[in-house]
Amino acid sequence: MELSEHIKTANVEDVTLRRPFHPTLRGTLCVTSHHLLFSDRKDEASWQLLILLKNIDAIEKRAVGSSGTITIKCKDLLVLQLEIPGMEECLNIARSIEALSSLESVTEMYPFFYRPSHLTLHGPWGLSSTEQYYKQTERLWDRWRVSKVNSDYSVCPSYPSAVIVPREVDDDKLIRSARFRQGGRFPVLSYCHHRNGMVIMRSSQPLTGANKKRCKEDELLLQAVIDGSELGYIIDLRSAQQAQQTRMTGGGFESKSCYSHWKRIHRHHERGKVVQESLIKLVEACSDPSHSVDRWLSKLENSKWLSHVHSALSTAGLVVECVERDGHSVLVHGSEGTDNTLLVSSLAQLILDPASRTVTGFLCLLEREWIQAGHPFQQRCAHSAYSHARLKQECPSFLLLLDCVWQVWRQFPLALEFSEALLLRLAQEVYASNYGTFLCNSEQERCAAGVKETTHCLFQSLLKPDIEEQYLNPLYEPTDLAIWPAVHPQSLQLWTGMFLRWTEYAQNMEEAREEVWSIVKEHREQAGPDRTNNTLSTHCESLTPIENLMDELTIL
Amino acid sequence: MEHIRTPKVEQVKLLDRFSNKSVTGTLHLTATHLIFVESNSTSAQEIWILHHHIASVEKLSLTTSGCPLLIQCRNFRVVHFVIPRERDCHDIYSSLLRLLRPVSYDELYAFSYNPKQNDQQREEGWQLIDLAAEFERMGVPCDQWQLTDVNREYKVCETYPRDLYVPITASKPIIVGSSKFRSKGRFPVLTYFYQEKKAAVCRCSQPLSGFSARCLEDEHMLQAISKANHNSRYIYVMDTRPKLNALANRAAGKGYENEDNYSNIRFQFVGIENIHVMRGSLQKLLEVVGTRSLSMTDYLVGLENSGWLRHIKAIMDAAIFLAKAVTVEGASVLVHCSDGWDRTAQVCALGSLLMDPYYRTIKGFMVLIEKDWISFGHKFADRCDQLNPDPKEVSPIFTQFLECVWQLAEQFPQAFEFSEWFLIQIHEHVHSCQFGNFLGNSQRQREDLQLKERTYSLWAHLLSEKQNYLNPVYSPSFAESHPVLEPSTQAYHFKFWRNMYHQYDRSMHPRQSILKHVLTLKESNRELEGTVQALKTKLQKFGVSTSPLKPKTPPRGRSLPPRPQSLILGAPLLSRKEVQQDEDEEVFGEEAREDAPASTGGERTVEGSSATENGYGELTGSFGSKNEPGVVTLEFGVARMTC
């Protein structure tokens, strides 16, 4: 069926649009295969609102006399109201939106039709690859290699075609290890610490089952990771009890007796439906303005969202502690190894690795650790917080990551090259996008759908100089050190920029941010061009009086 | 000094409140301070605790490592010492018990504090804030409001200031009559005049109405207030108490205005709880946030159960109601509670702050506190427990006011000239008794104590270090476009004020501060501009054209901006006596490496970001205490983790 067959009424005049904190507008509403378009009736300087149908999470219709009202709730949390004259038109529009916003087939989605004049489809797609990471990381060359054992995606359907594994483990062993891991996700390298060569590995759970099966190759693989005598840590993202229970269904954990050089630590993390419901509850709490303080706090608590943020950051901190402080390698896994595992390993990298705190570095990290590593974006982001549809595989793991990154940014506002705006943009793009980056569930599916050939890459376009500028943190000053976030509940906050982004509050914050920008700009202009190298040394003279004052104070 | 039996104890351990960290050092007890000096010479941190700041000292049961001493301070600092010998611990304990309970005003620090100023400077300091000038700024006296000398000798009301402003139609007999009908004689007087609409904000205490008593003079008084404003036919009477409390007061011969007896009033209960509820609420809050390894759930549930933010919102709601009535309806408002010195002060001050951008500047905020809190007799001595402890009188009323201002500043980042450090610093000194401003319960008492002759003014001190308290994104043009602030009171705007209640808990805070950074940039912008100007003039002197300015080559050398000395980055630089010196080794390490490639000072600011403090994990066994790069090299002891 052609997409256009879903459209019974394409155009309606005299529609009223209501948005929070904006004046009501009247204009023309237009439905196309992929968009909802509203345009102001005024001729000069006409104003348009273009919404990807995929961005629409839920719609509610209500009849008022002969006209109808449609409430549109978007996945980026915006809520709109449209008053449409004519009941039939209203129902037609609603029906079209319902059908077109929940397309199942990937190749019918908008990224396959998005053809802006300033982008071409030829040339390389994406920013990084396993091979590139290997090439850049000299520390790996000795003991690690790139394996193409998964080049036809037969060993592990959700892994990319190339992975980094210990040099001494051959492909046969990898295949055997893969059979012993859920979904074939055998332990692969995720990060090598530039300071001490310790690594973060990730995998899925071992399939030890009720009768404690073993896999020699899997044991050898992990043994090869820590190279003999030392110790490694396995961070299991389930409670010990949960891990025990999964043995009944064929899963399991690495037992002490079989993996003698690995010490296992269990950390409980919620997953799947629980986290999705958590998001739903949080957004519900944020969108009801009538709550008393008590009710708000109770709803915030009840949503458990901040608890998830708290556990993700604490576990990431624990991983970093093992790697950086303690000098040991770490294997991270939960059950499937496609959600919390990626969340923890990528957060740990952000904390550890200065390279992942630049715009490019961060996008590369996301590409390697989420897109190529096989986070099933299509399943996880099918619906957001408003949908009434029955939950299937939805889970806002990626949004949780962005929230955690925001918390890190709040505590280290100078350490990240990108700003909150980038996180907000990504939070929007992951649910509905013009680009192909977040399509499908794995590298294999993307290949089959021809994503690289027929869509544009979001990350590449974000890095275009004029666009990148919007996402830069004006205060950025790189640091080489690990940036350990504080994880006391008092140190974490609701991500207001995301969850209250459509309130008037956001506007005040925006103005303050602009003021900060202008101060920084003024400073750059005055301090001259050589400032980029020596951020503060250019005007140390001006600081002397302050330092003298300081000395005086100290003497006092 | 005679109370100090053991002035110095060595080998004392200081335990961190939220982690297993501890440091060893020497404890000194002086007449004014308790001082802890860390013995590790390279990173010697010092903690200075003013005796007046100590709220309680507790000797916990003996442990194998010594005798623990738990000290809780009014500025929310909590320190936990372990003293090796029980006898030393007892000596310190009993000395402190005596020292932190001064028996007379003369023992307060303000009377011995000497910032090396001469009498003239001191006098100038006290003259900085002039309330007569403030009323003039508002446009009072005017054709409807006049200064009355009825309280010149504190005869009508001894908790009011001498100078009071009343409607011109309120004659002396009316005033005196009204004052007899009001609790503690606190009759209705002007506190803020909204010139644009000629609407007045007045304050008083509850009427002694009981179940049916009336007072014609008091009714006349309200009528006079109403008549002084031609814009509105009615005035609002805001009783800031919950209705139930007001009803209960009737049984004691007090109560609230009966609308039938007063013409043209609109009576309104607001529902702010009393001092006892507020005290209990803060106590609950502090218990919750003082818990170690607090879970997110327990934190949020505890925050809710404490009711603290609910109370903050109640005060804010009342202030918004007041501001709306005055600015939108142009009506005058009379505010009272029971005695008219707690909730009334909160609501009047916060309401005025919403209406008048002047109060959102540094100087204006001082004026506001001086007017609505100090001069109108908020009982600082009792509420802050300065002397003669009566635990039932202590209550964080003023703290709540400061917090409301902070909550507003969070919503309107550009509206305030000052940053939160200004508020925190004021809070610090309300309890420090280092300056004379907040001593005593009323103006009369302050005069009796001759504070202006014998002590110094906090305001002069704060103004002298004004640059520390500036808000870098403050925009005067915002004040012009938003003369009246209209805050949203949606529940999610009320947040826990971490920097106030955890000021001294280092591990809680962000490691880098936007505020500090932007302030530094702004400061250097200003300085650079100055240099450019100076160079220009110089060049002109030499007859050189000034147009193509060459960038000045910077001299190499110390390239680091001033280090913040507080626990929280972005906190203002404080003098050594007031704040723990918290400079860790790595800071010096960085500085020593001057020839290192310009590292842009980033390391400086990630100081103290470390794993042990954050307590991510409880791994089993102990890690080898390896040297770690950068910040973490300094971790004390060995991280202990358990599986």
Automatic annotation (TrEMBL), chain A:
InterPro entries: Myotubularin (IPR030564), Myotubularin-like_Pase_dom (IPR010569), PH-GRAM_MTMR6-9 (IPR048994), PH-like_dom_sf (IPR011993), Prot-tyrosine_phosphatase-like (IPR029021). Gene3D superfamilies: Pleckstrin-homology domain (PH domain)/Phosphotyrosine-binding domain (PTB). It comes from the Eukaryota. GO terms for biological process: negative regulation of autophagy; phosphatidylinositol dephosphorylation. One of its GO terms (molecular function) is protein phosphatase binding. One of its GO terms (cellular component) is cytoplasm. PROSITE patterns: PPASE_MYOTUBULARIN (PS51339). Residues 124-499 form the Myotubularin phosphatase domain. Belongs to the protein-tyrosine phosphatase family. Non-receptor class myotubularin subfamily. This is Myotubularin phosphatase domain-containing protein.
TrEMBL record, chain B:
Substrate binds at N274, I275, C337, S338, D339, G340, W341, D342, R343. InterPro entries: Myotubularin (IPR030564), Myotubularin-like_Pase_dom (IPR010569), PH-GRAM_MTMR6-9 (IPR048994), PH-like_dom_sf (IPR011993), Prot-tyrosine_phosphatase-like (IPR029021), Tyr_Pase_AS (IPR016130), Tyr_Pase_cat (IPR003595), Tyr_Pase_dom (IPR000387). Pfam families: Myotub-related, PH-GRAM_MTMR6-like. The active site is at C337 (phosphocysteine intermediate). Residues 306-350 form the Tyrosine specific protein phosphatases domain. Residues 544-629 are annotated as: Disordered. GO terms for molecular function: phosphatidylinositol-3,5-bisphosphate phosphatase activity; phosphatidylinositol-3-phosphate phosphatase activity. GO terms for biological process: phosphatidylinositol dephosphorylation. One of its GO terms (cellular component) is nuclear envelope. Keywords: Cytoplasm, Hydrolase, Lipid metabolism. The keyword Disulfide bond does not apply. Gene3D superfamilies: Pleckstrin-homology domain (PH domain)/Phosphotyrosine-binding domain (PTB). The keyword Oxidoreductase does not apply. It is a peripheral membrane protein. Residues 125-501 form the Myotubularin phosphatase domain. Belongs to the protein-tyrosine phosphatase family. Non-receptor class myotubularin subfamily. This is Phosphatidylinositol-3-phosphate phosphatase.
